[in-house]
Design a protein that fits this description.
38% helix, 6 helices, alpha+beta, four-stranded antiparallel beta sheet
């Protein structure tokens, strides 16, 4: 009999928590800027790379780190790549669906960097970290490092876009933070108009 009393209280508690988070909307000006960013070659390249990687992995046998490189990182592993750092190793099904761009962070900073370090490289070209969330459960979140080769820090060379790495950052957020994030971006996350 106790379970019959406790269960409705738990359901009421969960319902109350879920109501705390509701979809958020950008202003019309912010939406216009966001849509313009989605149609830039760098975002279209990212979408095309993910689609090409999925198609390649699905039609090819699983690759070993010692196999010759076909598409390259971050799609497939190779001998000198970070273990677990390829889309194949993370599980290609996690990259299916559509993606909402959550953030684009420029990687250049004005601090002095050690020569030949990643930051030294980022400071000398145009590089950015693109954070995306899948619209399919469990809604994984990834960050891609995107570099525009032969660019200056101020100007992107659209002809030489390259992806240098992918990192799954889903576990950087607590379950509660992710629930809130999903709820708040749901208007955009579940719309083909706003996703890649």
């Amino acid at each position: 009999m106790k379970f019959l009393v406790v269960l409705p209280l738990l359901l009421i508690s969960f319902a109350a928590q879920a109501e705390e988070y509701s979809p958020k909307r950008m202003t019309s000006a912010e939406e216009a800027m966001f849509k313009e960013q989605l149609n830039n070659p760098d975002m279209l390249y990212l979408q095309e790379f993910i689609d090409d990687c999925i198609a390649y992995i699905e039609r090819s046998p699983p690759r070993k780190r010692s196999d010759p490189v076909v598409i390259g990182m971050p799609c497939e592993p190779h001998e000198s790549s970070r273990a677990g750092g390829s889309m194949q190793e993370m599980g290609i099904d996690r990259f299916k669906g559509r993606f909402l761009v959550l953030n684009i962070k420029q990687l250049r900073n004005n601090e002095e960097a050690e020569e030949d370090s990643a930051q030294w490289f980022y400071n000398g070209t145009h590089a950015q970290m693109v954070m995306i969330m899948s619209n399919l459960e469990p809604y994984p979140i990834f960050s891609f490092v995107q570099v525009f080769l032969y660019s200056t820090p101020e100007e992107k060379n659209w002809d030489n876009i390259s992806l240098m790495g992918v990192y799954e950052i889903t576990d950087s957020y607590t379950e509660e933070q992710r629930k809130r994030m999903i709820a708040e971006v749901s208007y955009y996350l579940f719309s083909d108009e706003w996703t890649l």
